[in-house]
Amino acid sequence: MPMRVALCGITVRFGALTAVEDVSLAIEPGEVHAVVGENGAGKTTLMNVLFGLVAPQAGAIRLDGQDRRWTSPQDAIRHGLGMVHQHFMLQESMSVLENIVLCAEPAGRFGLVDFSAARSRLRRIAEQHGISLALDRPVARLSVGERQVVEVLKMLYRQAEVLILDEPTSVLTPQEKDRLFATLRSFRTAGKAIVLITHKLDEVMELADRVSVMRAGRLVWSGRLSQTSKEEIARGIVGGALPPARQRAVRTPGEPVLAVRDLEVAGRSGAVGPLSLRVHAGEIVGIAGVAGNGQGELIQAITGLAPALSGEIALCGRPVTHLDVERRRRLGMSYIPEDRQRMGLALGATVSENANAGRDDRRAFTRGPFLDRAAMARFASGLIERFRIRVGGPSALAATMSGGNKQKLVVGRELARNTPLVIAENPTWGVDIGAIDFIHGELMRMRDEGHAVLLVSTELDEVMALSDRILVMYAGAIAGEVAGTEADRETIGRMMTSRAHQALPEVA
Questions:
Q1: Looking at the structure, do residues 154 and 121 belong to the same domain, yes or no?
Q2: Does the pLDDT at position 43 exceed 50?
Q3: Residue 386 DSSP label
């Protein structure tokens, strides 16, 4: 049954940090309500209040006019709310069906789980909304897009009438995004209320019925999409004029910093490669491609996270194919990983401890055998200020930060190492407009100062805006190369879905 939701005067504080201040918001059935804002603006925190993950210091939740106070997310779920988090919460060793019914198992004879009843009910739900997914497959074998479908099915199985999705397309391919949006339109037609937390304004303009803009914990504007424009939303997010488009200065690249020759590495469905590429000092080489075409395996082999089956990797003229991660980093490699949760940060450690992880100048923050906590905090404070990281301070736990601020901490730490080679893997995933511009500017600065930058991104606009040369990967191979000055979406788009000889025009 369609349900009206209202958040009234919500205030949330984490110590000295006010994450949400006196925010009131109405969520209507049969609408897609986009909530946008900078990293740390309070979007996710506000929705975590609605879902029962965070208890507010002030304010109320109203469902169909009645005040509610949740004791847990399970309480919110029982009242028809569901949430898909930015980082999925699935058990990889279990099947799709087992994940969906977990903690909501239908009881059969003798108290056993009635999987047959659950399967029949899920098939009806999937058919109703045009969803297709094998229920017996282990989650570990699913793509990112398929895992998101599992999370959505979990909500529907629990009869959610209000669906909250936090950055749902941040790691999806264009095709997966289109399928997700078709499903969300089906939900809207069925009268469900959908809350979309996102940084991608093109998606807001494509899907949303209503938009709410948050900045520094406050609601600065809320209304129907038809009453505003993409430019006005962007200005509301950043609190002023948008930054101008960045221009690449023309420069002659220097000597090769990274050289990869005939590299092969194990992939999900066979070997990736052989791959050969070079990245010179003073240039950004971008790798474009639909996710899952071997980019991840290539980066794992270059950074030392996965062994090479064959081929050679050289860094600053020295062979590193058989060196471990630490020795490659000491030779001059920084790495901004795609997964900030599992690889980029230790969430249980402080911001200060994370900021200083992997630093080469260890004498600067040690006193004999002991850590110099004051020096570590000063360095972390510098990163917080320079990269505009919204957090309670160096002593705050990394787990308390929003996803975008976690990303800025990882980017700041790695760029501060000032190494000859920077590998940036989806460096602006889940960050806001202002932060994207700042991170792009920092990568450009590294390039202009003579560093080599290898950029891997599923955002084609990002690759085209930053890269001096663009390599396109398809089916585990490099489909072709395009100069940054000659790149266009149509040519690269064709190369992303076909071999180079099919994508590039014939030479007369």
A1: yes
A2: yes
A3: H
